Batch of 2 targets.
Target 1
Amino acid sequence: MKTDALIAMLAADAAPVPRQAAARRLSLALGLAVPLSLALLLVGYGVRRDWADAVQLPMFWLKLLFPLCIALAAGVILQRLARPGVRIGRAWPLLLCLPVALIWALAAAVWMPAAAPERATMLWGISWRICAASILLMAAPVFVAAMVALRSLAPTRPALAGAAAGALAGGVGAAVYAMHCMELAAPFLAVWYVSGIAATALIGAVLGPRLLRW
Amino acid sequence: MKRTTSGSPQHLHDAEAALHDLFVRGQAGDAVAYRAFLVQLGAHLRGFLGRRLFGWPDEVEDLVQECLIAMHNQRHTYQSDQPLTAWVHAIARYKMIDLLRAKGSREALHIPLDDELEVFADSATEASDARRDLSGLLDTLPDRHRLPIVHVKLEGLSIAEAAEKTGMSESAVKVGIHRGLKALMQKIKDAR
């Protein structure tokens, strides 16, 4: 086929195009998947029983907010990666790392003065075995939805886009799981929450080049 | 091949502005502007890719066609506040790397990221023949996709005429064309 014929073919398909398609499709994906993650939490885990007391604790809010900040930054980066030729910029990757740096700083601050037995409690808590895996589980609906949305968009850097989708999903998953989790020690969050989110991002980076070709 | 090259900043700026205007009108549904956009875009792509794929002159026209289909299918990812140069360059580069990787070429590793301004610097209007048999690929599509494309695109019928001829509704013809072009891209990918 001649290129002219191809162009005539494409031009006949010139229907009006929706605006802000990337942001809208990703928002739609989140809108569908976050309730699913919450449902997964309520059915499979339940909200922590002492939630009325927990909401008084600053640590509870920190545990909820630091993954949400990661998710927010990852979401903005993802929306840019989904569109060819849009630069990520420096600010959002820094903002993505900031919550992690803060939680690590806080963890170091309580870790340093603590004695050995306390340290063990701070690090392992009572639920380290299930923490990262549970975050992955809560992240799964968001991750799948974000990847499906990405497949209708045009990421030219699929590994990075997959990682951003993973960080977004991991951040949301960790915030959802935080409503169940009883742990409040900063070192626990710094290790297990961050691991859960990092694992999701890593899975995204590995799957990205396989699933996001276009 | 008739080819013009002008990399002066003013020339590039004008090319960007003219193409941007046509593309934005095309995205609003103006088929005439969109067609003019695609013709000029094709010429720029031919020049840009021709210069970079000098080792594979036979592949140039195939890649021009593939880029045009990809840009058409992904045009919803362009926002009018973004430089068109950057968007076109990112897609052309992505498709070029894809091709070179498929050929097992190490050159894919050396395609510069920062030559995006040059995407509108060259223009080559004379197409060589494409090697890939797009018509053949088109024949492998199911009728509901293939017939609207054949009637509307290749025989130049209007949507209404094609609807009458195929017995499909007008919206089914439009959807058929739209989905068919996506399916065609998939076939190109799979054939590689």
Note: Chain A has one domain: 33-211.
Target 2
Amino acid sequence: MTKKIPITPFLFLSPALLVIAIFVVYPIFAVIYFSFTDYNITNPPVWVGLTNYIQLFKEPVFWQALAHSFIYLLVTPALVFLCIFLAIIVNRKLPGINAYRALYYIPVISGSIAVGISWRMIFDTNGLLNGVLLSMGVINEAIQWLAEPVYTLPIAMMVTTWMGLGYYMMIFLAGLQNIPEELYDAAKIDGCNAWQKHITVSLPGLRPQITMVAVVSSLAALQVFNEVYILFGPLGGILDSGVTMVFYLWRLAFRMQHAGMASAVAMVLLVITLAFSVLNIRILERGTETS
Amino acid sequence: MELNKVAYKPKLETRQHKQKVVVQIFAWYVLLSLIALVTIVPFVWVLSTSLKGPSDPIVSVPPQLIPHDPTLTNFIRVWGQLPIANFFINSVIVATTTVVLNLLVTSMAAYPLAKMQFRGRDALFYLLLATFIIPPQLTSIPSFVLAVKVFKYYDQITALIFPSLATVFNIFLLRQAFKAVPNDLIEAGKIDGAGELRIWWDILLPVVRPTLATAAIITFVQQWNDFFWPSLMLHTRQHMTLQVGLAALQGMFASDMRGTAAGVTMTVIPILIFFVVLQKYFVRGLGGAVKG
């Protein structure tokens, strides 16, 4: 009944809006501006127009980084597939099932730095993997997993996937537990076997979770940095084999003092991120329309 | 004959059925354990390496999992050369301060977005949501400039707290929770003469306590494990958080695998204990995040 004086809501909102304005909104506009300047953080920016972009597009490493970031998106289908499978497996009443769920969740909470170092010890030339392969006679001499450019991205993507398994599994598990039991009973009457019922009931029922996992994991894949940094060091792997967009941005801005050009990289990444989000929202809307 | 058959057959079936169920359950445990092996093998190897004495080989054919000469000297050596206690204290301060202040700020913002009528409310909410997809690394250059030139908190842990005071995800989570609170409760408070601040603090916050717990844990773990921004800000050893310290340790002990392993073990165990104690909130948080 009583119409609120608009001042009260904004008093409540103001601390949050202030923080977001300073640390999210202002930096976006600043990074747009920096991308058109010659800037090295210490000296004031000098307007140079499109120079950074022209230079960037001539730079082979940029295209390499772009390609690597797109390749990295393959972790999304891998995670969706593996985590639905995992969720179905752990979605049953067995004694001790919670302990197993917790074990699968350990990589998620351990933090990417500890995880990265641990995997380094597996893939090291003197690591566990070579030890196992040598003793099984699969290989005759140790492979330098971390120094071979062809292995760089697959190893990093494997570690990213491994770290996400438990997290996305839990999301799908919550989704599975929301699907009414009657739907499975109906599928059984229709003659579906144990795996068929998951195709006909679980997959359509998990639609909101699949969309969410696709959005979250692909945005995370576009932002990958920690795994590459810890596994392959500040150079990003031999011959830039692990340099992703964020890694390239970091190296340009904070190692090579090219903050202007790094801002141009940020803009390209922003456009990709926005395009991806719009695409994802489109798919999400189409999903809700049909159901 | 006929009767016998009828009476006998179901009995046989149940026995076969029982056997089948036992085999099936066994197969599930085998599968579950194999997956668990995949998810913990790197940590088991790290733990094993961290306990290995000088006479235990790091690499051997076949690999040696259980040290013959177990020792804690690796832990003592790492503890002595790096201020690990400082890393811990810094991480705890950053994570807990962020959680407390962030929840105050975001729950305050979530109240009008959920329960008050004012012009532009929904537009504002969607604008806030839109900022959610901006990766923080993307704006790291201006944030770095702000830290060095405006706020002057470069190389201090406050640099990690201020930018995290308001997160859109938590505003979203708490708005959903507030929306589910019946309006009658708020009206009753108003009749009793409570102001908006009292309604928020005394009525709404206690009702959404489970969501607060969830948001607190998600924020805590996020801050605890954050690396990109902290690595840009913190350079003095004494000021580092655990993640930045761990990365430094990796560089320092590059040729000392036992030491690196001990460092990783020391930093992972506390967060594991935290997880085991609060496991149910982790699970509920993830389920709730999707439903909203």
Note: Confidence is low (pLDDT under 50) at residues 1-9 of chain B.
